[in-house]
Amino acid sequence: MAPKVLLACTDLFFSSRIVETARHTGATVVQVREGVAEAALAEKPDLVLVDLHAAVLDPVESIRAIRAADPGVRIVGFVRHEEADRIRAAREAGASEVHARGAFSARLPQLLAER
């Protein structure tokens, strides 16, 4: 069965690249630009991808709420550059992994294939 992915990203260009990659792997993507934790509860994704720069999404609090509601879900955050404070905050909130965008893009097919 294809994985269900919740994508929380406000960058339209980058999110379209993620959706295209997901399409090639057979994953189903649900995109959200608000209410990330609520969407995760409703959609029950296998994987949550969170843009840590999307302030409107309140990414760290969203990660914390998703982790509290579903301790087993994989949550992967991504940042534009190596930013120690954002990375640390996301990990402390419960992100499974955090990557700079370049590494995230390179690893995305593998992330989508892993269970």
Brief write-up:
The chain is 49% helix and 22% strand. The protein has 115 residues and is of the alpha/beta class. The chain has a single domain (4-113), classed as 3-Layer(aba) Sandwich (Rossmann fold), CATH 3.40.50.
Characterize the structure shown:
The chain is an alpha/beta fold. The chain has one domain: 3-Layer(aba) Sandwich (Rossmann fold). Helices cover 49% and strands 22% of the residues. The protein has five helices and five strands, in the order E-H-E-H-E-H-E-H-E-H. Helix 1 packs parallel to helix 5, helix 2 runs parallel beside helix 3 and helix 3 packs parallel to helix 4. The termini are close together.
Task: Give the number of DSSP strands.
Answer: 5
CATH architecture: 3-Layer(aba) Sandwich
- Roughly how many Å is the radius of gyration? 12 Å
Q: Which residues form runs of ≥5 with pLDDT under 50?
A: none
Task: Summarize this structure as a short list of keywords or feature phrases.
alpha/beta; 115 residues; five-stranded parallel sheet; Rossmann fold
Write the layout of secondary structure elements.
Layout: E1 4-8, H1 12-25, E2 28-32, H2 36-43, E3 47-51, H3 59-69, E4 74-79, H4 84-93, E5 97-100, H5 101-113
Parallel strand pairs: 1-2, 1-3, 3-4, 4-5
Helix pairs in contact: 1-5, 2-3, 3-4
